[in-house]
């Protein structure tokens, strides 16, 4: 099958931010997203920036495709301003975190959607546990031949993003001991977690076709990988991060993701190699960063070399600045 990769300007960026609707008196989720969205549509009929999500207690804020993180943050700020009086009228507040800390996850209402209804029907118990919230970042890639190599580069730096955003230590009233418990809940869905993709785009098309023929998926979007191409947008999408608690954190996660993609793109243009780790190292790093957050020690090379994550993250930021990635995305 043909998996068309849409045209997209290099290193443009878009952000999706999932927020919980919370009763400030009880700190419990409120299943009033449909009512809030209906009122929002009447007040701002062409807003296009705020959407329903799987659960009725969730709103998703979506930026437009932008050239800068500041532009995405501006979109998010406008969305929050539009929502503020409506959410306040419902005696609610919006909260960002990877999970809700204490309510039973299966007690939350699912949005009226054929897609979500089918997911819960198929996955049963685990589908009813999806009381989780994330920040997703899309970055434009101008050439589909670059997409999978850049994806591998992002996977090698997945613990940096994951640990920086980790905000889900509690689950159903329990302290899980994990900085990012959301990652382990989400991976229970089919085809979620670390990707198993081939070497090139032709192979990805063949993989998608075979999975559809086998009845494993109905569309490419059902591949819920931590990092995945988004053919319809012409982007690579990082999906590993817990929902940020504030807009400043959203900006930090978005900026790091954008710089990682631009840095990888620059290296490919120069004929240089990208960091690529064996799959079991990627899995080990994901577990370590989920368990220990920024206190983790991660594998940094195919030879098994290790480094404290805080030090590795600091070195990465210095490298991105020195290499011009930060300059490359300020257009």
UniProtKB/TrEMBL annotation:
Keyword terms: ATP-binding, Ligase, Nucleotide-binding
What does it do? ATP-dependent carboxylate-amine ligase which exhibits weak glutamate--cysteine ligase activity.
Q: Which reaction does it catalyse?
A: L-cysteine + L-glutamate + ATP = gamma-L-glutamyl-L-cysteine + ADP + phosphate + H(+)
Record's protein name: Putative glutamate--cysteine ligase 2
Q: Does the keyword ATP-binding apply?
A: yes
Secretion signal span:
none
Gene3D superfamilies associated with the record: 3.30.590.20
């Amino acid at each position: 099958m043909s998996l068309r990769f849409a045209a997209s300007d290099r290193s443009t960026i878009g952000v999706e931010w999932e927020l919980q609707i919370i009763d400030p008196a009880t700190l419990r989720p409120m299943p009033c997203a449909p009512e809030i969205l209906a009122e929002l549509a009447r007040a701002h009929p062409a807003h296009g920036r705020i959407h329903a999500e799987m659960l009725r207690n969730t709103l998703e804020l979506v930026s437009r495709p932008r050239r800068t993180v500041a532009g995405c943050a501006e979109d998010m700020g406008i969305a929050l301003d539009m929502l503020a009086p409506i959410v306040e009228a419902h005696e609610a507040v919006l909260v960002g975190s990877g999970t809700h800390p204490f309510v039973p996850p299966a007690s939350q209402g699912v949005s009226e959607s054929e897609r979500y209804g089918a997911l819960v029907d198929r996955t049963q118990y685990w589908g009813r546990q999806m009381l989780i919230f994330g920040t997703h970042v899309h970055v434009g890639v101008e050439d589909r031949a670059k997409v999978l190599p850049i994806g591998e580069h992002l996977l090698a730096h997945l613990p940096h993003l994951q640990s920086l955003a980790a905000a889900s230590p509690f689950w159903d009233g329990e302290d899980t001991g994990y900085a990012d418990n959301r990652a382990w809940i989400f991976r229970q869905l089919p085809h979620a977690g670390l990707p198993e993709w081939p070497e090139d785009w032709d192979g990805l098309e063949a993989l998608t076709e075979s999975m559809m023929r086998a009845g494993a998926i109905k569309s490419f979007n059902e591949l819920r990988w931590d990092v995945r191409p988004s053919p319809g947008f012409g982007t690579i999408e990082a999906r590993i991060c817990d929902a940020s608690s504030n807009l400043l954190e959203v900006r930090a996660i978005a900026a790091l993701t954008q710089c990682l993609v631009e840095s990888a793109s620059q290296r490919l243009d120069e004929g240089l190699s990208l960091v690529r780790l064996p799959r079991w190292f990627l899995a080990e790093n994901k577990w370590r960063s989920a368990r220990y957050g920024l206190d983790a020690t991660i594998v940094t090379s195919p030879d098994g070399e290790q480094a404290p994550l805080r030090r590795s993250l600091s070195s990465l930021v210095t490298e991105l600045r020195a290499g011009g990635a930060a300059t490359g995305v300020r257009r």
